[in-house]
Amino acid sequence: MRLGTRTTLWIGALLLAAYGCKGKSASEPTGAEATSGGEVPGGEPVGGAEGTTAADQSPWGATRAEQCKRPAPPAINAKAQKDLAEGAQAAAAGNTAGAEASFHAALKRDANAYAALYNLGVLADRAGKEKTALDYYGRALRVLPDYEPAARGSATIYLRRGQAQQAVKVVEPLANAHRANLEMQALYAEMLVEVTRFEEAWMAARRALKCDERFVPALVALVKVSRAQGRDDLADSILAQALQVDPQVAELHFLEGERLKSEPGRLREAMAAYEKAVQLRPDYAEARMALGIQLLAGGNYDGALSHFQAAARLVPTLPAVHVNLGDAYRAIEQWSAAQTSYRQALALQSKLPEAHYGLGLLFLTAGGSFPGLDELTAYEKAVDEFKTYRAEMGAGLSKDDQSEEYLRDLDRMIKRVRRRMEREQGDAS
To answer: Cα angle at 333 between 330 and 337, to 5 degrees?
Structure first.
């Protein structure tokens, strides 16, 4: 029985993102990941990055330190900063309305409070209002063009929509115009991986590492490009190095979990890595999804449901979240909730074989226990869903796909129910 689906999530919505802090939120209300500090084992940079000092001269005459220095950001009004802090606290406490009010108050005090614009984008995204979120992220970037959190927020939405080229279109000009922004270079490298521009991805990550050979976001990008190129040994080496640089980065533990999951007999270790990622960053939906899928497969239905529910709150517009949520509800026999989740997934993406597969299993498993349906109707609905699943899978359907067996079983079950109904009608007459 297929219990869940696995898909790549792109979130990265961290409230109150500060300028120039390597992804670390000023107050970390939602578990923003830190990506600084530590030493590189052996002192050798990864991916061809060169160790440099302030005395190293560039071809243009400036020192390396001067090349890597970011311009100071525009100052945010002190009272607006107070509103930002209050908004972050409200968001951390689950008070979305209070958070929005505080961020809007910050904008009234300082129309250029880019962090307030970004945070409003995060809240809009979590409410499923992607268009509004993109507008806020765009406004933040107009105030501060190299504000990496806003660029990541926009790219994240486009990636979730399957529009990788649009994500690159957002980030590429910013990365090219702001070479001293290491976060932007690392983000650019990740986006280039999505469109299989691997050599350029290496170059972007190396630009960041030439300024800081311990810069974890660039190391993360190199892990991803190495995996995409099938260079798993290199990816493992870079990942191990990055974990020594800073073991408090949630994404590194997620990547470690992905690595361990692919190795026989190491699933327990993989789950521990996913759990560590969630512990470090509770709003890490991708790690929650990965952990929930393994818990569901292992029979821990309540644990899986908890993680899927949290992921649905974080990324309500991602269809795979609702498919997995439906799988969890089905496992604990909450039939109506399961159907609602599958239908939500299909509302977000009309052609989604996994959702139809889940609905097929739902009606097959529930049978006459499904609210408002008799046994025969439930089985007939299951047949319809499995047939839709197979049609949408098309050439991607394997010869031994389980749905074929389910359809054979359903044919026998429907015939049996009909014979019983005929007997009952005959006895009644």
So the answer is: 65
Token look-up 């910013």 returns: 174
Q: Which residues are paired to 25 by β-bridges?
A: 17
- Residues 191 and 205: beta-carbon distance below 8 Å: no
Q: What is the pLDDT of residue 64?
A: 66
141 three-state secondary structure: helix
Distance (Å, whole) CA 156 – CA 228: 19
Instruction: Give which of 175, 209, 167 is closest to 191, Cα–Cα.
Output: 167
Count CA within 13 A, CB hemisphere, residue 299.
0
Among candidate residues 174, 199, 180, 237, the one with its CA nearest the CA of residue 46: 237
CA distances from 36 to 20, 134, 140, 155 (A): 11, 28, 24, 23
Could you give the C-alpha distances from 306 to 284, 314, 322, in angstroms and in order?
14, 13, 13
For residues 330-348, average pLDDT: 97
Rg (CA), the chain: 25
CA angle 261, 267, 268 (to 5 degrees): 140
**Residue written as tokens 């949630």?**
250
Residue with tokens 């292992």: 298
The single residue listed with the structure tokens 């870079």 is 238
Q: DSSP letter for 162, please.
A: T
DSSP characters over 88-105: HHHHHTT-HHHHHHHHHH
Distances (CA, A) of 318 to 29, 175, 330, 362: 23, 27, 19, 21
Whole-number Cα distances in Å, 312 to 82, 320, 336: 30, 9, 17
Are 13 and 32 a contacting pair, CB within 8 Å? no
3 state DSSP class of 63? strand
Q: Is 316 exposed, middle or buried (0-12, 13-18, 19+ CB in 10 A)?
A: middle
Please state, for a pLDDT cut of 90, what percent of the chain lies above it: 79
Map tokens 């961020």 to a residue.
103
The pLDDT, as a whole number, for residue 26 is: 31
Fill in the amino acid letter for 222.
Answer: L
